[in-house]
Specification:
This protein is mainly β. Among the domains are: 234 residues, TonB-dependent receptor, beta-barrel domain (Maltoporin, Chain A); 38 residues, no CATH class. Helix content is 6%, strand content 56%. A twelve-stranded antiparallel beta sheet has the order 1-2-5-6-7-8-9-10-13-14-15-16. The chain has a two-stranded antiparallel sheet with strand order 3-4. The radius of gyration is 34 Å and the shape is extended. The two termini are 58 Å apart.
Length: 428
């Protein structure tokens, strides 16, 4: 019963829950992991190899049963009776339920890893090493009809392959150095740009292991200086997985004949960019770690400075009459720098243990390059923080003096609308 219900409206929630139908979604996960380890001390002590194969599958299906022709009744206060709402003059027609079902998505992930590790100490000298091969293939199925119009959306495996290494050395745990590099490849770029090399180096100095430091500062159990410098890469492509591939769209309308009848058509989508490459970030980090008061008090402080270059950015310095959307290209560069750290104190009172931490971070970023053609300096994004909003500048609120000055300024005050006292005032 729904007194205000008309045939163009849906009835009450109770009626809909009781008779409108349901949507049933079922998900299935399947995961398998195989791993094998082999020590090779017979060749050289500390050497071992490992292989790992992982498979994961997710399948989500849905079934919908629905019917929107729900019988409802209208109350007539004159006759104190209820009458069924009719869709036509002959009587109420109750349609059969509609049943649909489809696969919402199906994911298949295969990951292969093979690596060799080395860890050995010769007196005061400690060496470590890692060589890793990693390959991942992910296939995502959704609406299979999309595979013709946009092959980046469904059914096409997404592949990643990389080889990386790490070599480490330390002397008495006092002087430390790590050198690593990664040679990674992705299918998101054209074959000649698929791979990128990203090296890095890190050094550390545990001053607290020096005898002179132990004598001068006995309360410190750890005082470590460290620094790292290197490059990392990103293959994330905003706006599409395969920027280098040309796609086409459907449902475009072309008109023919004297009647100008429209027909569905295929038209060119965003232009392809076969020259897109990995985004790069050059990172510098200088840090300090310390523990004191029998490790009750600890602190970590870092200074970081990152330069992200070859960022994917959509050009905006071409006329719109080109008639097609331009692809993203490696045009932008940004900077991010600042400090962060944490101070922690832990102790116990009797059998009660407690700890408290103070965490802080100070960071600033700005756009260094983005190929903009903005002629006005105050509207340029170059040199401004990332995602800096642009608009009017707040001057505060109108006061009695402001309103009086405005009334004196206008030659004919009655012809203009003077703002009331208390509303915000803005300027370009």
């Amino acid at each position: 019963m729904f007194p205000q219900f008309t045939t163009s409206q849906l009835p009450t929630l109770n009626a809909r829950l009781a008779t409108q139908g349901y949507n049933h979604v079922r998900g299935t996960d399947f995961n398998v992991l195989f791993e094998a380890n082999q020590k090779l001390d017979a060749l050289t002590q500390g050497l071992s190899v490992k292989a790992r194969i992982a498979y994961a599958s997710t399948d989500v299906n849905s079934k919908q049963v629905f019917n929107f022709t729900i019988p409802t009744y209208r109350y007539n206060s004159l006759t104190d009776t209820y009458a069924v709402n009719l869709r036509d003059g002959s009587g109420y027609v109750y349609d059969p339920y509609n049943v649909t079902g489809n696969t919402l998505n199906n994911n298949n992930n295969v990951n292969l890893q093979a690596f060799a590790t080395y860890d050995r100490t010769f007196g005061d000298h400690h060496f470590s090493g890692l060589l890793l091969f990693n390959q991942t293939s992910r296939t995502y199925y959704t609406n299979l009809t999309d595979i013709f119009w946009d092959p980046t959306r469904t059914g096409v495996p997404e592949k990643f392959r990389g080889t990386s290494f790490k070599v480490g050395y330390d002397y008495k745990g006092r002087y430390l150095i790590d050198i690593n590099g990664a040679y990674n490849g992705t299918d998101r770029f054209a074959a000649n740009n698929a791979y990128g090399y990203f090296p890095a180096v890190a050094v550390g100095y545990r001053i607290s292991e020096e005898e002179f430091f132990k004598k001068l500062f006995p309360t410190f159990s750890l005082f470590k200086l460290r620094a790292s410098y290197g490059k990392v890469g990103s293959d994330v492509a905003p706006g599409g997985r395969y920027i280098y591939a040309q796609t086409y769209n459907q449902n475009g309308a072309y008109s023919f004949g004297e009647s100008q009848q429209s027909y569905n058509a295929i038209f060119e989508g965003t232009l392809a960019n076969p020259n897109v490459v990995w985004e790069e970030a050059t990172k510098l980090d200088i840090g300090l770690d310390l523990n004191l008061l029998k490790d009750k008090l600890s602190a970590t402080l870092d200074y970081f400075h990152d330069i992200r270059s070859r960022q994917l950015f959509e050009p905006g310095n071409v006329p719109l009459l080109i008639g097609v959307s331009l692809p993203r290209a490696n045009l932008a560069k940004t900077q991010n720098k600042g400090y962060d750290g944490q101070i922690t104190y832990r102790d116990n009172i009797g059998k009660v243990q407690f700890n408290t931490s103070f965490v802080f971070s100070i960071a600033k970023n700005k756009v260094l390059e983005n190929t903009e053609s903005q002629p006005y300096a105050n509207l340029r994004r170059t040199g401004q923080p990332i995602d800096q909003p642009f608009g009017y500048e707040s001057l505060g609120f109108y006061t009695d003096q402001d309103v009086a000055l405005l009334n004196n300024y206008w030659a004919n005050p009655g012809n203009y609308s003077t703002p009331p006292v208390g509303i915000p005032a803005y300027a370009l």
